[in-house]
Every structure is written in structure tokens, then in C-alpha cells.
Amino acid sequence: MDSRTESQQSELRQEATLLAAELSGAESDKDRTLWQDFADATTVEHFCRGWLAIQCRLLGGIQAGMVLLGPPDRGPFRPVAVWPDSRSSVKHLTKTAERTLSERRGLVVTPEVEGGEAIGDRWPEVGYPIEVRGRVHGVTVLEVASTQDARLKAVMRQLHWGAAWLELLFCREDVSQETARRERLQLALDLVASGLGQERFFASATAFVTALATKLRCDRVSVGFLHHGRTHVEAVSHNADFKKQTNLMRAIATAMDEAVDQRATLVYPAPPNSTPLISRAHGELSRQHGAGAICSLPLMGNQGPLGVLTLERPADMPFDPATLELCESVAALAGPILDTHRREDRWLFTKVLESGRTHLAHLFGAGHITLKLSVLAIAGVLAFCFLVNGDYRVSAKTVLEPVLQRAAVAPFNGYIREAPVRAGDVVAKGHMLAILDDRELRLERLKALSESREYQKQLHKAMAERKASDVEIITAQINQAKAKVELLDDQLSRTRVTAPFDALVVTGDLSQMLGSPIEKGKVLFELAPADQYRLVVEVDERDVADVKVGQRGTLLLSAFPHDPLPFTVQKVTPVSTAKEGRNYFRVEAQFDQPPPRLRPGMEGVGKVEIDQRRLIWIWTHQVVDWIRLTLWTWLP
């Protein structure tokens, strides 16, 4: 708010000149002078002084007045214009100004009066806020030599209309600043975008500094990044092949270090009324290599400086405030982007080393309590795994099989008449399992008996006629008929299929096949003892070498996951079986005390106890063995 742009000055000057010309016929020379000074104002203070003088001149009867301005809504607010002259004391107006600012509205503060005269030479004070777009930029306070309400209202009305000049001034300044910021941001985005189209960091940085040098008419623009506490030049404008060890590059790097150490923008030569900073390296760069004006801007990140952007210009083109503001915007936007591109463009080994170095610095440095506690916890777990022994057990799928299994088959071709049992039933020895239809067998037996009696009659007749040859033939036929009867009697005795021992029906359900034909030898039921079982542990070929006869183990069945069942290894079959993409060996075991609710075919997970070993070995030996085998396969 110290000055206005040339366009704003021109517009306000033209408006004030036109108004002065309209009133010139009726005003005195002093009035024309006031209006001319107001039209020629080049600063906010000059503009406000001219405006306050005109207001007081137009109103008449004003004892004192002042205009306070400051940062909108924040303050502090300071006097920029005092009337009748800058040496007048207006401290008595400050209370009205503070009240007007706090209430954000026009106020008339009237002191006590007697007989129309103010007590103690005090007159009413009129305060009016200067408010633009809902923000208070300042306040105007006038001391009016009148106590009449009409007069005070007229003063308030005039301030209301006259404040439009100040509001117009601030509105135009806001628009100008917003436009400048937008243009500056657009330019910064264009400069940064000029380097983003490159895949490699060096090409990207070179394109960026070249575009910046061209846009700002610089002799040279360099960008460098920190590495181990020192700045290294990474790219120079208009130069795709520069040597970092030359005297010029070392001088630029030293100047960059100077900006990093102070974490501030360094301009050489330093502009007047600027904060004094050390710029010795910049001076040496200017003297030794002919740089007239130098500006170094630190590229800041979340953790501190990332690098430096150094611009060099001829001596007749120093860095003005507008250019510096643009450069700072570009540096703030481009620094993190270029640093990210640089980090991503490094070798993978370098990334790993830096990541490890960063984590070690966090681990052994200050802060990062969560990381330290996590590392301590992991170290404690690893120490526990390396030092403590645990039970090494071989786990494998386990299937429950009966010790003995017998099949009940069809004794002859026939039909099923009854089938009262099915799989899952427990039967006693001699219990009927199924009954076959015997009607055809009985008819055939009657037929065979009739034939036998007929042959007996023929035999008696042949013996009476003394026919020896016929007697022999008929005797053979009689024996044949008797054998057929005996065969049918045997089949009739086996039409009832019974259980050979107390057993559990493992398979078989003929309840849906009554009346169906069956062939001789067809398996009708499979029976197994109800209280004798054998475990089959399918041990993977990688673990079978540790399993031996006599070892103990525990089984958890899927049907009873809360009841562990102890067992003992009885036999290790030395023949592998391929199943489901893996090879396993059949290891047979027996229960110590099998519970009555077990059934053949149940499955679960069995664990054979081997010995005591380190926990880390127990949890990692399979992976280590796989790695060894893979390496052995790859090695020549």
C-alpha cells in the first residue's frame, strides 16, 4: 500500500482533474491548488492528505481531522493524513477512531455542552470506517465545530460520499495486486512446466533454468542441490555440458552455500534499506567472473533447504522488488518438484543407501520415538527367537482309517428284497444287513426235487427190467438232480446277508434299490470294527527324514477341533505318493485311547513331536531349504 500502479495513478488523476476543472469557475486559487495536488498524488499518503484537505475545505467548520490506515482487519492502524497540517495534535481523536474501528460503523461522539459551547474546547467528533469488500482498511475522524444535529448529519453524509474515493483506491489496488499475483503464478507455472516434459533430471533442470534465464533476461541461471551439507551445481542455463570442477562452478557453489547457511534470499549488490546479510561469496563471484547483479534463492522443502537457484544479470539490470517476488514464487514452486525428479533419477543402489542412512539417522538421532520403540520391539522378538528353544513338530494332513475293513458282497445273481441298514449304522455280529429275493430259487428247488423223484421211478423200472446200462444213466441223472438241489439249498441259506462281526457300516445304502437286480460279487456293504482305528499321516517328503517309529504326536480332527488326541507312530512306509501336486510318505500311527465317537474317513491335522530346536530355525527352515535347493538348481 505504499504506492499505486501507473494505470491507477493515471485514472485517479484524470478523474480529479476533470472534477477540478468543473469547479474551477467557482473556487478560489487555494481550492484549485488542493484539487491539483490531489490529482497529482503518487502515493497513498499523498492521496489521503489531498482527500482529507478537500473534505475539510468542502465541509467548513472542521477543527481537526485525520485518516488512519493499516493492514485490513488486523492493524496496527497509523495516521497517514492529518488536518489542518502534519504538525497538528490529533491525539484526542484516537478514542473515537478506536471505537469506530471496533464497531465498524459511522459514529458521532458528542461531548457535554453548556449554552451551545463545548466544555474544555471539545467539539463533537465524527468517525467513519473505510470498508472495502467487508474488510476495514482504516478510519476517518473529523472534529466538527458545531453541536447541531443537522450539521453533524451533513458531515456524516459528506464522509459517506467522500469515502468512495478511498474505497475506489483500495478496490483498484486489490484488483491490481490480484492481477499481478495471477500473472506471477501463471509465469511461474509456465517456467516449471518447461522442464517437466523431460524424462531425465539433468535435461529437465537444464530446460528449466534456460527458460528462466530467457524470460528474466539473465546472463546465467544455475541450480544446485545439497549433498552431504554442501551445494553442488546440477544445471546451468544454455549449457548442456559444463564441468563442475571449474573455478566458475566452484564460485557459484560457494555463493549457493552462503544462501543456504543464512536461509535467506541474497541479492548483490544489496538494495537500499534491506536487511544486512553476508554476501562475500557473491561479491567474489561478481568480481572474478563479471556478474553485475546476483540473486540466490534457497529452494525450501519440508525438512529445510533442498538447494539454491542463482540468477546473474548485467549491472544495469538490478533485481527490483517485483522481479524478486516472481523469483521467490518460482523457487517455491520448482524446488520440491526438481528435488523429487532428482531423487527419482538416481541409481537404485544410491536410493537404498540414502534410505538406509535416513532411517539410521532417525533411529539414533533425536525424536522419532515410535520408530525407536518399534525397532526395540523387533530386536527383542529376534533375540527371543534366536535364544529360546521350542518344540519342533512336523505337521501334516491326517486321515482316520479302520484297522480292518471287510466287504459284504452279493452271493449270486438276484434281486434285493430288504435292506434295513445303511452307512453309519453300528451292527452286531450276525445282524441282518440285507435279504435277497428267494422265490425263483425255491421254484427251481421244487423243480429239481420233482426231477429227482422222476428219476427214482425210472431207476426202479430199469432195475426191474434188468437193464444195466439204463440203471447207470439214470443213477447219474439222480446224482445230478441231488447236486442241483444242494446248490439251491446253499443259495437259499445265503439270501440273508449278515454282519460277520460287531462293526460299523462304512459304505452302502440299498434302501433306494429295493427290487433292483444285482450281480454275483457286487459289493453291497463295507464293514469296519467300531473301536479299532489307524491314523495315516501324510508327511511331506521334505520332513519325512525327521519322523521315526515310536515318536509321539497329537491330532486335531476337523470335527472336534477342541479335543487333541495323542497318538504314537507305528510305521513309516518307504514309498512316496503323489497327490495334489506334492509328494508325501504314508506314516501310520495308533491312538493311545481312541474315543468312541470317532468314525472312519475323518480328517484333521496331526503334529509329530521331533525334538527341541531354536525358534528361528523352526520358523525359517522350510524357506532356507527351498532357497538352497533353488540355488543348487541354478548353479552350474
Give the gist of this structure.
This protein has 14 helices and 26 strands.
Protein architecture, described:
Helix content is 44%, strand content 27%. It is elongated. It has four domains: 6-178, GAF domain (Beta-Lactamase, 2-Layer Sandwich); 197-345, 2-Layer Sandwich (Beta-Lactamase), CATH 3.30.450.40; 406-526, OB fold (Dihydrolipoamide Acetyltransferase, E2P), CATH 2.40.50.100; 532-634, Efflux pump adaptor protein, beta barrel domain (Elongation Factor Tu (Ef-tu), domain 3, Beta Barrel). The model is unreliable at 1-5 and 18-27 (pLDDT under 50). A six-stranded antiparallel beta barrel has the order 13-22-25-24-23-26. A five-stranded antiparallel beta sheet has the order 2-1-7-6-3, sandwiched between helices. It is an alpha+beta fold and 636 residues long. It is built from 14 helices and 26 strands. The chain has helices at residues 6-23, 29-39, 44-59, 94-103, 149-196, 201-216, 247-262, 280-289, 321-344, 348-364, 369-387, 439-464, 468-493, 615-634; strands at residues 62-69, 78-83, 107-109, 113-114, 117-118, 125-132, 135-144, 220-227, 230-236, 266-268, 293-301, 304-313, 389-402, 406-409, 414-418, 426-427, 432-436, 496-498, 503-507, 517-518, 523-528, 533-540, 552-557, 565-579, 582-591, 603-614.
